[in-house]
Write a structure and sequence with these properties.
Length: 214
Amino acid sequence: MADGALDPPRDCPLCPRLAAFRSDNRAAHPDWHNAPVPAFGPLEAPLLIVGLAPGLKGANRTGRPFTGDYAGDLLYDTLIRYGLAEGTYGREVGDGLRLTGCRITNGVRCVPPENKPTTQEIATCRRFLAGEIAAMPNLRAILALGRLAHDTALTALGERRNGYKFAHGAMHGLECGLTLCDSYHCSRYNTNTGRLTEPMFREVFEGLRRLARP
């Protein structure tokens, strides 16, 4: 598992706590994915969307980022609306949905207990995010869903965190030439509390229109 690799192996041992949690979930739900969740979408895309980690009953179950829970409902509806995806999102891998103008990944590939990866787990898994970024030849922008995704993306790029403060809707021109865009995470908690509304989320993609054009 050298730095720059795109995907951890199914039984990745790098984070013992996450490996143990995977094992427990395999025993409880043998028909679920229960493994590191690979990125979704073409490497040739100009936009990379970065979340924090798979949801227990979402991506950890289905094996595709943001698939199977509310966050995916909002995200994929928005991607279709802005021409970054084609088809119909059906909460399952076999729904036929295809990403055309973006790729989606997570800063941490394995589901963490209580949806909370540790600082060390984020740092350990960052090599795979760095590998994703390096493998995307046409990349122009990264959309970070949440502050932790913002922070780990900056570190993966070798940028200074204190130079770019997370703020919903912010567009940061980075020294490496990419643009980092921020949004609150599209989780049910954020939408239920009003921290993030559908119009607010769409405004972020309005700002990404030019950068995300294939």
